[in-house]
Amino acid sequence: MSQIYKQKTQSFQAKILREGFSPERWEWNQGQAFITFSNGEVVRGSCIRCPDVPCMEFRSDELVVTGFEKFPADRDHAVCPTEAITWDTDKTSPVVDNQQCIRCGLCATRCPVGAISLSNENGAEVFDEENDAFCLVSYPATFEVVESIRNQFHILPVGGSIVIENDQFMEFVYQSINTLLKSTPKLPQHLTRNLFIAVGNEAAMRRVGDVNVRMEVVFSNNQVCGTAEVEPGGGILDAPRNLLDNVAVLVSRYGFAKDKTSSLAVTLSLPNRRTDYWNVVKDIKHTVDLKFGIITIGALLLLLWNRRTVLFTAANQFYADADSQSIRKPMEAILARRIELTLGFQGILECQK
Amino acid sequence: MLRLPNPGSDISGFLRIFQFLYEELKDYQPFSLDDMTHALIRNNLATSSGFMGDAALERSTRDDRSLDPLYNQSKAYSELYRMLGWIHPQENSKLTFSFTYLGAHAEEVRKNPKAFVEQCLLGFAVPNSLVESKGDHQQRTFACILLAAAELDGRISRDEIIVGPMSLKNDRDDAGFRAMLARIRRARKKNGLLDAELREVAEDRGITLTTMGNYTRLPMAVLNWTGWAKKERHRQFGKPTEYRVLTEKGHDAVRQIKSLEDLRKADLKPLDQICIASLSKIAFYQMLERSGFDVTSSSKETDKAYRLLIRRRILSKQSKIPGILFSPFQELEPQTVSGIFPSVGAFGTRRKADGETSPSVPRQDSTSVAAEVFVPVAPSEYKAASIAESRKGPTREGLSDTLMEIASTHNGDLEKAADHVVESYRLSKKEEFYPLIADLFCLLDFEAEVSRMGVNYQRADVLINQPPRSIPIEVKSPTEELHISVKAVRQAVENKIILIARTPEATTMDITTLAVGFYLPNARAEVEALVNDVKNAYGISVGVIDLHSLLLIVLAKLTRARNPNLQKIEKLFGIINVADL
Lengths: 353, 581
What we know:
In chain A, 25% of the residues lie in helices and 20% in strands. Chain A is an alpha+beta fold and 353 residues long.
């Protein structure tokens, strides 16, 4: 058999927990994860050099969507929708490009030991140093070594919010997204898919350039299968009719039950109060008994930062129409607290105007 | 100007698709375009007419392969992969392929694909034995674009790529290269010069500006994806112009190109097979090494090849083997390469369409049933009639008179009369077209009116206002879309829902909602499928009518007193069949 050469891979020294450090609890505080250990020490997580880089890549099974096995999904495994996090072979851990980072926090939530912090000034940062709890050893960071550490962490109770939202932080996130939209046209769909997965739904996005399938994003959970239309700009008025098309296809061609489908419009900012979007959604509910929800990228980020699992439903917890043009109430119900964003700010929870 | 493949701009996607194809077909070589299509379908990497899986294959497959979208898609992929040297055609069949040793390495680059793809892009040169290139260009295209950009203040625009590197006859002719740069520099200083150059290139090649733009799609995507350049707008003659500006990585690529000995197929002509093989091996393993592969175990082979080339005085003895830029899989004949490098995968077994038993895929006729009854109209040979001019502000009676006059001109031939009128409205905007549609329905005794702005329930462009049998009509003028599409159907559905919700007395669910446009749908199957889906899911009937059909019905009424069955129009479902009415 002919020799097929392999790309060079770096073999890094493993980093393990020092003796006597058994993790008990994990708390997020001001963008950093702090681990409380059995010996009473509270220490930051440090990168353990996972060979499968969960902070950068989804596993293939994470991108499967039950009920949509034939959907022509974009198999892009990247967690970061802007390619901000990379790992060159001359570095001992992944590195985040501050200019490309939109501060979504997806990489931070996927680090199994809380080694990635998130701040407005610096974006996501990977902490790779030895500390009181983590030390380097002479042998390489193999999958077995890393897994034995990860197994101790994934069962931990986790407290706190990765980010305590405020207008300033969210403004920065939105500015970053808007700036990168031009050079990364796939960004809205990619971010939507990854956020849907992060909050507990299976999700897939359509392949770039596939003009034959009209559904942009599909998702499912143990309750529903659904589709989402992602409209970051002014195209939100198209969303209801596109969702009607999607549901018709799901029901007619693929045998889904209409009352087991969920439909979401995903946007950066809720449409203005006077746009007919709100009336059309109400008309659809009235005429064909479908509740189309709407959720903003900002709202999805709030769910992520507060580590909430939200399974989208047919009854659609994010349904909003002309009678109630806001998603603040369901969001605050899920977070079980008041959300610290000014009313109407960036149209994230209610209309700006 | 050089023609490059135009499969799209999602380079990561093309690589992923190749990796799937390799996985599926490496043990079933050689493979055909149909084999590729089936593999793509099996992996949900291809769709057609709004369908996925086997349904997509069924809808795509037809006797005239040039009309088969999935077949054409596989053909586009195969051209790209040949260009990159990842597949080679068979000696006896240009459209049957096998994977190359280089292609087998493409399958390995899942974690760090960019370095490898970059080297394959830099390896592309014309002329070569794999991809046909019109014109007698001799150039290493992507390298040439980078080198030109570096000389042009580190930036280059799409149009400059067209008139510059991609039109350069010989990139190794220094004088020619400098002259090309000088022309672009002059064009940057004088308004209009670049456009003049573009026109010259277009005329010379006999292609349109749009086609030239299409040929640059791949290089523009490459510059972005590799990170060699980033988009920036610079003001040029008072207006913003988009440039690709070399990044640090792009400059590194330029330095790398300049540091390597650029070898072409033509340079190997005087050499014997052993020397060609030696040079090819050195160049190939260097290419892999630059792509981040660990080729330590090949060092004996490359040392041996180097010593032979020194003995033959092809290369001089140096402390280390000189760097060579040459991709044998992208330039040499497949038969030559197969004698130098190992083959990969297994040959001799054909994979069936579904991997096991293979029911024959029903072939779709290139004409549909509806077309037997209603023949789509080709643009008329008649000149645009005065009807468009006279329609500006005419009465409905005026329209009626004009139509009868035209019918008389054509000796009562209603098809020709309808053609005539259709052609006269070819460039009409909505201000003209919507009232025309409303008036035509009025001539059929419907109470049709163009919707008024600000009226809540009148979202439709035209409304047949006759409660409880009102019909909303979504109208698409030819300047909005020439052929009725799924977009119009979607809007028709929305119009119906809005009308029912906001004015429940206006209509009932069993009354149709119409999508009326200029020509019948191009993607007929897709529109028909959506109409069926909407009916099944919501119980809403959508009727689709083109201008020609509507005119036929109206002309028949006006000239022959043949009144259409209005109830059938009110319940219309699917694409209209005039004979049925």
